[in-house]
Amino acid sequence: MPQKITVAVAQASTQPTVAATLDALQKVTRHAASRGVHLILFPEAYLGGYPRTCDFGTAVGARAPHGRDQFLEYFHAAIDLGDTPAGAGDDWVNRKLPLPRGKEYRGDGTREALEKISRDTGVFIVCGVIERAGGSLYCSAIYVDPRDGALGKRRKVMPTASERLIWAQGSPSTLKAVTTELNGARLTIGTAICWESYMPLLRQSLYSQNVNLYLAPTADARDTWLPLMRTVAAEGRTFVLSANQCVRRRELPDWITTASPGQSDGEEYVCRGGSCIVGPLGEVLRAPIWEVSTDDLTESADLNAALSVVDIDLEDCERGRLDMDVAGSYSRNDAFKLTVEGLDLNPPPQ
Question: PROSITE patterns recorded for this chain (predicted)?
């Protein structure tokens, strides 16, 4: 049976509120559905926001009071998916955690909103989120299936540079791949968030699970990002989807810009985007998109400029493994071994 699906990456920008961002996500997903898309990826931190340029009033050995107020604003902008600080895994997926008194669900309803959008459109949604649990924030990505709802959730295990100040480290067990069937095709989906793709052992943990769709929501708009995505695709013999935000300075939250009054050029891009799609031999299927966002565009036809869509044949992954399978025949697993705390590296059952 053919293993063909249509996938998309959305170069979208966080809106001033979670509700407005969810509305924008719904609009883009509906448009993607009209184009026959089965799975769509949104950028890192799309819900909750990536606080680009903000230093939260910190220097080594010092914190300014206004930085704590900025963190409070950012904390309140994050979403609550109803998980625990340690991460409840399958208990969270299967809704086995206790409910708050008088409520029908845990969290703030964002999980349920995403599940409804996915169900109504028939599109599998993967979305970067800033998730709050207890007193900490996590940079996460949620998998939402149109039939079964939330299948799982990644938490970034290694925030990069200044991100470490504001985001906690996620459990490596969340590197667990998820499986689903779309358009009759069987998918094994893994996600590495931004610079996690620069971690060779983390990449190998996803390859070991035999992923045929490697998702890379990111905040990196550097020229070096596309070569990395091509390396990942060719190394893992997997399709790679990467989505980034495109943001002008004037689109940053007020609590960031008011603390930097000297930055006057509101039209300056603080992130130019670069969302792309790469095939399992490292070929660029959709070149990076620059300086355009789905949120800049009002007409459905215009959305195509910030929405990369491509038909893929998942059997190309097996074709590519004729000569290279870094978790199998090419791995020399008699000489090299990888273990990940709390994670079964065997391919999940289909």
Answer: CN_HYDROLASE, NITRIL_CHT_1
